[in-house]
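JOB MANIFEST
job_type = single_chain_structure
chain_count = 1
residues = 235
[input]
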Amino acid sequence: MTTHLNADPLELEKFSELAHRWWDPESEFKPLHDINPLRLDWIDSCVGLAGKRVLDVGCGGGILAESMAVRGASVTGIDLGEKALSVARLHLLESGQKAEYLLQSAEDHAAARPGQYDVVTCMEMLEHVPDPASIVRACATLVRPGGTVFFSTLNRNPKSWLFAVVGAEYVLRLLPRGTHEYEKMIKPSELARDARAVGLREAELLGMSYNPFTKVYSLGRDTAVNYLMRCVRDE
């Protein structure tokens, strides 16, 4: 149940139409499958997932959420896509893993469970919502003092438009056309500003790059296109 709708109905419909293909590693979600080991290992190396209470905001079909459960975390995933959550729950039956999936906005979940999580992840989502600062605020509310919040999103500059939109969607066809809108991309400075405003301190900034020749993703210092930010909530 959700009362706060910080979402674009067209975005929800777009992902709902593809929901049945979420766990197909050769589908439109192939990039998520390809980058998941990278982001999972990074998160685990930072916080040690085993035994942690973790929330995945905008969990979709559960690729990251379920992989964190495999690492021993107690995972809750929230999303506003009912079909994607159905796929996530169905995959749990196939994998035998355990996770809680809720049809709820980040803002409503923050009102219901403030400070309940050791770790909050919000990956590949901020660039798809009308008010990303509201999501950042909710994440800060949901994590306990001293806990960690992980974000990943797309930078906004000519290079990111060329690589993430023209390259990924039209040339390499890694993603369906229309997946990203340039105006909704977020500069690291903007995300860091929104985080500071709600008591989150930026602790690490990494870039994620794709080599079209080797077809391999890697983490590094180049944050011009995709980037990941680790924040710690003030004590």
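[summary]
Helices lie at 9-17, 30-47, 63-70, 82-95, 106-112, 132-142, 158-171, 188-197.
Strands lie at 53-57, 74-79, 100-103, 117-123, 143-154, 200-211, 216-220, 226-233.
exit_status = 0
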